[in-house]
Design brief:
With about 250 residues, the protein is mostly beta strands. It contains four helices and 16 strands. The protein has a single domain, classed as Beta Barrel (Acetoacetate decarboxylase-like), CATH 2.40.400.10.
């Protein structure tokens, strides 16, 4: 293989058999269950990296079923997002979400999510199922139960406009790629947006959330003090590519 061929084909690893195709990645009938809860403000401040600032003492726990996603197939994802504020160098202030933790059951989106955007994804076994009148979400890390979430099924229909505005906000994460000597080669704050969102329905209902301690799956680091609200919605959307908004390896910004 010639040098030019390596440069041309090097968009993902392995070079000759990439773990995922080129984007865009479109998702159809993506099903969300999101539970907002009050947590420990000191712990939240400890896990949110500057220049982001946490907003209040809330965390959102998410279960997402993706039955039809281009390039990634059929999989389930779960994790925690923390409401934050980002102030750019020009003084512009944005509110959005900091993606703290993600667990999923499919290799391709784990590889693509980590390598392209920097999503903090780890392999696990999340499930989101309908059991009679209840939506049930569980997360097992290996054989150990780490999360149980339940929500009443479609108790009250939600207006779509406020939810659409919420989904239009940016999300942030830390992208880290080590050098071959294990020093950081890339350490960046990345911002991305969901695009072309078509909401197909949204509902609220009673919800409960339990997080259990695990050495390698630390969702319980952000403990549940009080469940505030829950939503269940279905949407088609495109996962937008990211942009670097802060480089931790540059001294002057």
């Amino acid at each position: 293989m010639k040098l030019a061929d390596v440069r041309k084909n090097a968009f993902a690893m392995p070079l000759n058999d990439p773990a995922y195709p080129l984007p865009p990645y479109k998702f159809y009938n993506r099903e969300f269950v999101t539970i907002s809860y009050r947590s420990d403000p000191e712990v939240i401040r400890a896990v949110v990296p500057e220049p982001l600032e946490p907003i209040g003492d809330t965390v959102t726990y998410e279960f997402i079923r993706m039955p039809d996603s281009t390039g990634f197939g059929d999989y389930t994802e779960t994790g925690q997002v923390i409401p934050v504020r980002f102030t750019a160098a020009d003084g512009t202030v944005q509110e959005g979400g900091y993606v703290h933790a993600m667990y999923l059951d499919d290799n391709s989106p784990i590889a693509g999510g980590r390598e392209i955007w920097g999503f903090p994804k780890k392999l696990a076994s999340p499930k989101l199922v309908h059991e009679q009148e209840t939506l049930v979400g569980t997360l097992h890390y290996g054989s150990v139960l780490c999360v149980t979430a339940t929500m009443g099924y479609k108790h009250r229909e939600l207006p779509l406009e406020p939810l659409a505005k919420s989904l239009a906000k940016p999300n942030f994460m830390i992208k880290i790629i080590p050098h071959v000597d294990c020093t950081p080669r890339v350490c960046e704050l990345v911002r991305y947006y969901l695009e072309d969102v078509t909401l197909k329905g949204a509902w609220s209902g009673p919800a409960a959330l339990q997080l259990f301690e695990h050495a390698m799956c630390d969702v319980a680091r952000l403990p549940v003090r009080e469940v505030l609200s829950a939503s269940h919605f279905v949407a088609d959307l495109t996962l937008g590519l990211g942009e670097v908004v802060f480089d931790y390896l540059k001294q002057n910004q």
